[in-house]
Fold each of these.
Amino acid sequence: MNSTTLLHATGLQKSFGRTPALRGASLTVGPRERVAVRGRSGSGKSTLLLCLAGVLLPDAGGVTYLGRRYDAMTADERARLRRREMGLVLQHGQLVPELTVLENVALPLLLEKVERSSAALLAHEWLARLGVAELADARPAEISGGQAQRAAIARALVTGPQLVLADEPTGSLDTVGADEVMAVLLEATRSCDAALVVVTHDNRVAARMDREVSVEDGSTEPAGALR
Ligand SMILES: Nc1ncnc2c1ncn2[C@@H]1O[C@H](COP(=O)(O)OP(=O)(O)OP(=O)(O)O)[C@@H](O)[C@H]1O
Ligand SMILES: [Mg+2]
């Protein structure tokens, strides 16, 4: 790890009951770096992402964000760090069903005490950039999987994060939609100087990143050092 490291994960092990999900995974991400994470279904990609976000703590190994160790922080401190510094696009069920699409996107801003009307304005702008502004007043149950994915990406970007962690963000989109959404994701991360870690099965998405890490049976290859 050096002074330009944003995120550093090393020797991560994580089991769910008797199922090992991670067995010594490591990944280092520099500021503004874009990394594709690939691997077969069940190889541990989502678990790795949740550990990188500090949602899950590993059983062994550790993660630091700008030199701060997650295991030395409380769950509240990690949640606050996530809200302030990160945009997280989860693989499943990421929108709050009771809230409208606009309220979902505005939520991270409201939690950071941004004034209601400014939060709504920003949320609207991001929904428009993702091409789903007309869905602002809909509830998550009333929109398609691809539309929900776009809204979830808007929500991840609305705070101007330093690090975006996205788990198959284009998985429910057709080719044209995936290209469109990736273009927004890349442009948005570039404009706020954010780093991007994307789990993807899509060769074309991976080709647009700076480097690729593959996950196999819970281990990363290459070991994740900066190039
Ligand atoms: N919450 C959980 N409870 C129990 N087992 C889990 C849980 N999350 C993941 N696993 C198991 O851990 C292993 C890794 O799962 P993970 O979701 O990280 O894989 P993945 O690479 O993201 O797969 P996919 O490409 O299908 O999304 C799998 O064997 C999975 O069944
Ligand atoms: Mg997954």
Note: The mean pLDDT is 92.
Amino acid sequence: MNLLASIEERLAPHGILLRGAVSFDEGEGPPVGDGFARIVVLLGNVGGSVWQPFSAWRKSQPDGGGVHPLDNWSRAVIQPIADAFSAAAYYPSDTPWWPFQQWAVKAEGLQASPLGLLIHPEYGLWHGYRGALGFAEPLRVSAAHVRDFPCEGCLEKPCLNSCPVDAVDPASFDVKACRSYLSSAAGQSGCMIKGCLARNACPVGEAYRYPTEQIVFHMRALDI
Ligand code: B12
Ligand code: SF4
Ligand code: SF4
């Protein structure tokens, strides 16, 4: 079995999928040991794929998984795999931030929706990244680039007309307006329990929509 297939097999019970790979020239990638990665393999969730395994882990933890349980779970799952394969592990919550979205654009050919979230032709906006593995040696990885960009043919763009405070705009995301709405009574009974109305308005990937508990979890994690 090749390296990536072995990694895929170890990640599968946790609902984490391989989400493409980015190759780097010598010295251009993120650090691995004393050198730099020649390839970074992205690991992510598709729809609610991680929710059950993550929830089960959380219940098994005396502290419920800590203050940032999804980040802690991601490390608990991914770090042993990185160690077993002599890879470096990178996480979306690491600071300074690794450029996960830039990597994803290169890895799978995804493009940004007007919300800033990358859209996948099948999963829509219902996918994310849990980590990445960096290898010092180049690996041969078959490219799985998506060609369709759903936003191109979406003329009405309902995502842009659904935010109650017009926080979303293709040029920028008004984090302040969003946060202040979320902390209001209307926000608490709206987006905080229903999820971001702009993200919900997108018709692509309906079948991959996160389960309600996961949506509420992510909204609370925004740390309003
Ligand atoms: C800071 C941050 C936030 C902040 C501010 C976001 C903002 N738009 O300003 C807050 C807390 C508000 C936030 C909110 C959310 N976020 Co956020 N966030 C991040 C984080 C940690 C860092 C982003 C960053 O600045 N990176 C630094 C730069 C150097 O990296 P970058 O890859 O170059 O990213 C920038 C560019 O790629 C650019 N970009 C976007 N698309 C494209 C396309 C092209 C072609 C190019 C060149 C650039 C580009 O946007 C990024 C800057 O915001 C990333 C994780 C990560 N490490 O990347 C998640 C991340 C971007 N967030 C994510 C998500 C899902 C959300 C939420 C939906 C959370 C929720 N409630 O469920 C909301 C939605 C907000 C929105 N409409 O954008 C996902 C996006 C997944 C995807 N499908 O694209 C990420 C990747 C985390 C993850 N684990 O998967 N987020
Ligand atoms: S509603 Fe249309 S424009 Fe907005 S993210 Fe979905 S496909 Fe793209
Ligand atoms: S969470 Fe609500 S307020 Fe924030 S961008 Fe989405 S729709 Fe707008």
Note: Residues 2-149 form one domain.
